[in-house]
Design a protein that fits this description.
The complex is a heterodimer of chains A (about 210) and B (about 650). Chain A is mainly alpha-helical and about 210 residues long. Chain A has helices at about 5, 35-65, 80-90, 90-105, 105-135, 145-170, 180-210; strands at about 15, 20. Chain B is built from 20 helices and five strands. Chain B has helices at about 10-20, 25-35, 35-65, 75-110, 120-140, 165-195, 205-240, 250-285, 295-305, 320-335, 335-350, 360-380, 385-390, 395-425, 430-455, 475-505, 585-600, 605-610, 610-620, 625-635, and strands at about 425, 505, 550-555, 560-565, 575-580. Classes of the chains: A mainly alpha (about 210), B mainly alpha (about 650). Chains A and B meet through strand 2, helix 2, helix 6 and helix 7 of A and helix 6, helix 7, helix 8, strand 3 and strand 5 of B. Strand 2 (about 20) of chain A pairs parallel with strand 3 of chain B.
Chain lengths: ~210, ~650
């Protein structure tokens, strides 16, 4: 074994003993890209990112061939979507706090962070409902209505899924004993929420502003 | 030659402890709960072969219908369902799941680990695949088979013309099979990047593993498209949206773009693992490390990228801009370059080695010939003027069958003959194998070569009959005779497998004298794969003389299902990892998802409320088991 291969990034490296490479001193889990969960999460984000990206492409493809777009000239009201934008940006704070607390394996802070995220998630879900009522078009009126409803819908699906994940994780923190790997799951849930936040920015811009320019 | 060895610590007691830890519960619960990659991989392969057989029977029925002019064996509506279900089954339920099944079985053994990264997710993926496939065939048997082609073009599949529930089943089955494909792809990617044996740097990774990695990444970036598209057309049908309805601002051609953006890479999800099979088999039978290993890796990656730039060549007969067509013609020609490069590397390897002409190698040679013809007609069809002439004719049917049979099915049979001893511990009969190969080679060419000529003579695809005055009868009869020869060949294969399972010669660990890690373990491999995880210092660990490096990993628990996580580039040991125990929840979640999707075919509220049961199953799946959690807390070590 060369020196380079022995210089593992773990806090305690694998040790050579005779013909064997002893890994008993290695940690039983790791955070971020050291964990398998990070890679699984990254795969899911890639999959959903592709779907979101193409939904935006579909929107502009249909717009490029449309005679009238929006169908009757009515664009979505800005109020609820913009409130949601503000709130989702605010949700970054408890998300960041929870992620950091998970890395520190601080169960009390994690619990509070998850509860705060769940409360904001509830508000986001309710406001999202109001957003649908303010789109000023129906999904079955024409291609424009179909595109904005589905564009908002795919993001809602993600938002609601991660909202429920957050609630379940908050509940799990009350179960004893709590294994260390649950903190990895919580950190990854926070990672996914960053995707929910960041993906909202282009979708918000398309749904609410594309037809105002 | 030397394989990874174990020290005195790894004795019979270790094997017994590992066996106890890794073996499933007996009986039906253990069967439903299993998440061992070898069990799941075998299930994928056997199920995909069953779907292959069903789709093959459909192909045979179509060939018998077309054997003579004015045949009344089948009616036009049933014929529509036959060719659509045949194509959908072959592409979505046979080819991709078969290749992924091989990856699920082989990749953990090849990279030197004990299971896939997310074994419960893979188990759930299998159940979803099985249930989706049964739905498609069940619907077909109830006269609700898909009937607008395997690519379900709108407006035929839209709300206006796609009456009944036939297209809905296609949309649902595509959602099932793509969800399965994506789950397995994420899992395999993680296995490859994060759980390789220490020392297996990316440059030492076997070529089949490279092929699996490239395929999995392609799936992650292409399959979401067809899931999205299938759902959009389902929304058009179910909710009255207008994505594909030109009367309300939608666009029928949009469907073709969305489908083929996925559909062309789909061909390569099938073809690239086939290339991986060939690259695993040739060095063994040439008794020579692969010539141009790095060039082959780069070719696989290049093929993966280029395959995303070809989709419009399926749409040359539509009104896409002429300049765009030229671009896609150029891309279609360009993708031949990396494939040709690989073929030259294989020829060089064979040239330098001493060829051992066993059955797997015969199928490899068959692959060269059949794929070459398919590739050449592909170049013909990549040219816009010729494509306009030949579009939707039997020439295209001939081309796609040459490509898919040559690029995937010949390598697949090579792979089955090659790895069957590893999976079952028994050698398939060489004599029956040679007969099967000879009949299959003759059968495939007799069936599909005449279709080129029929296409040039103007016979279009998807016609259920034709008049005698066309003069197409004799060539169609020849093609049907070829189909019968294929049937005999498949019968011999099934006979060979059945005979071997009971009477076959014992294989031993490494019957072919191969060099990669899967051949270092017993055949069939034990539930835990490796007595001690290996440490790797070369591309063919079983062929290379050992240096001063460690040979194996020690210090992993035998009492819990423990494995090792390593770094992405250099495979340095990083953390230990506890694999999940078998659980029933992946199966229940798959049943719940099936219920949801079927419910949503008939009911819009079902689309919403149907999510609740699988949602609850997923929560139960995740919810901690106190006893297991206590054991894990006692075992774990913080980073």
């Amino acid at each position: 074994m060369t020196t380079r291969r022995e210089s593992v990034p773990a806090s305690i490296p694998a040790v050579r003993r005779g013909d064997a490479l002893d890994v008993s001193g290695l940690p039983s889990y790791g955070f971020r890209h050291r964990s398998l969960m990070w890679w699984g999460n990254a795969g899911m984000i890639a999959i959903e990112g592709v779907a979101f990206g193409f939904m935006i492409v579909i929107y502009f493809y249909l717009r490029s061939i449309a005679k009238t777009w929006p169908d009757d000239g009515a664009v979505p009201d800005l109020l609820w979507g913009t409130i949601n934008l503000g709130l989702i940006l605010v949700s970054a704070l408890p998300n960041w706090y929870t992620g950091k607390a998970a890395l520190d394996r601080d169960v009390i802070k994690v619990r509070w962070g998850l509860i705060a995220s769940s409360i904001i998630g509830t508000a986001l879900a309710v406001i999202r409902w109001l957003e649908f009522t303010a789109l000023n078009s129906r999904w079955d009126e024409g291609a424009y209505g179909s595109a904005v409803w589905v564009l908002l819908g795919v993001h809602t699906f993600n938002l609601v899924t991660d909202y429920f994940d957050t609630i379940v994780l908050a509940a799990v923190t009350f179960v004893k004993p709590l294994e260390g790997k649950r903190f990895v799951d919580i950190a990854e849930n926070c990672g996914y929420w960053w995707f929910v936040i960041i993906s909202w920015l282009p979708i918000y811009a398309v749904v609410y502003w594309a037809e105002r320019f | 030659m030397s394989g990874p060895k174990h020290d005195g610590a790894c004795d019979a007691a270790t094997a017994r402890a590992l066996e106890e830890t890794w073996t499933n519960k007996p009986g039906l619960p253990g069967w439903l709960e299993s998440n061992n990659h070898k069990v799941i991989g075998r299930r994928f392969i056997v199920t995909a072969f069953a779907f292959f057989t069903a789709a093959g029977i459909m192909g045979g029925l179509m060939r018998h219908q077309l054997a003579t002019p004015n045949s009344t064996l089948l009616g036009p509506d049933f014929y529509n369902q036959l060719f659509s279900t045949h194509g959908t089954t072959m592409m979505f339920l046979f080819a991709v799941p078969m290749m992924q099944g091989f990856s699920v079985y082989l990749v953990p053994l090849m990279v030197g680990t004990r299971n896939t990264a997310f074994p419960r997710m893979t188990a759930c993926a299998y159940w979803l695949y099985l249930m989706g496939g049964l739905l498609l065939l069940g619907a077909f048997l109830c006269n609700t088979g898909v009937d607008a082609g395997w690519f379900e073009y709108v407006p035929l599949a839209g709300p206006q013309f796609g009456i009944g529930k036939r297209a809905d089943f296609w949309n649902m089955v595509v959602t099932f099979s793509e969800a399965t494909g994506l789950m397995v792809a994420v899992d395999i990617t993680t296995v490859i990047l994060k759980t390789r044996a220490p020392g297996m740097t990316l440059s030492r990774m076997p070529l089949f593993v490279w092929a699996s990695l490239v395929t999995s990444l392609m799936i992650i970036f292409a399959m979401p498209m067809v899931m999205l598209a299938a759902n959009l057309v389902q929304f058009d049908r179910m909710l009255g949206t207008h994505f594909f309805n030109p009367a309300e601002g939608g666009d029928a051609l949009l469907w073709q773009h969305l489908f083929w953006f996925f559909g062309h890479p789909e061909v390569y999800f099938i073809f690239i693992p086939g290339l991986g099979f060939i690259s695993a088999i040739i060095p063994t039978f040439a008794r020579q490390p692969m010539f141009g290993h790095d060039a082959i890796v780069l070719s696989l990656i290049a093929t993966g990228f280029l395959s995303f730039g070809l989709w419009v060549h399926h749409m040359f007969a539509t009104n896409v801009p002429e300049l765009g067509k030229s671009f896609f013609t150029a891309m279609s020609f360009m993708i031949a370059i990396p494939t040709a490069l690989q073929i030259f590397c294989w020829i060089a390897t064979l040239w330098m080695g001493r060829i051992n002409l066993r059955t797997p190698m015969l199928f490899v040679l068959g692959f060269f010939f059949v794929l070459m013809i398919g590739g050449l007609t592909g170049i013909m069809l990549g040219s816009v003027p010729l494509d306009l002439q030949l579009h939707d004719t039997m020439f295209v049917v001939a081309h796609l069958h040459y490509v898919l049979l040559g690029g995937a099915v010949f390598p697949l049979f090579a792979a089955i003959y090659y790895w069957f001893p590893k999976v079952t511990g028994r050698m398939l009969s060489e004599r029956l194998g040679r007969w099967q190969f000879a009949l299959f080679f003759i059968g495939v060419n007799t069936t599909f070569f005449p279709l080129h000529l029929l296409g040039l003579a103007g016979m279009t695809r998807r016609v259920y009959t034709y008049g005698a005055e066309t003069g197409w009868g004799p060539l169609n009869m020849v093609a049907t005779v070829g189909q019968v020869i294929n049937d005999v060949s498949m019968f011999l294969f099934v006979l060979n497998v059945g005979w071997t399972l009971f009477k076959g010669k014992a294989a031993g660990n490494d019957p072919w004298g191969a060099g990669t890690l899967e051949w270092s373990v017993p055949s069939p491999p034990p539930a835990y794969n490796f007595l001690a995880l290996p440490v790797v210092s070369s591309r063919e660990p079983l062929w290379s003389p050992r240096g001063d490096e460690p040979t194996h990993v020690s210090g992993l628990s035998t009492r819990i299902r423990e494995g090792l996580v390593t770094t992405v580039l250099d495979a340095l040991p990083d953390t230990r990892y506890a694999y999940p125990n078998p659980e029933i929840w992946p199966f229940i979640a798959a049943v719940g998802v099936t219920g949801w999707l079927v419910w949503s075919i008939w009911s819009v509220p079902g689309f919403v409320w149907g999510m609740i049961p699988p949602g609850l199953a997923f929560i139960a799946w995740y919810w901690p088991n106190r006893k297991e959690a206590a054991a894990e807390v006692a075992w774990e070590k913080e980073p």
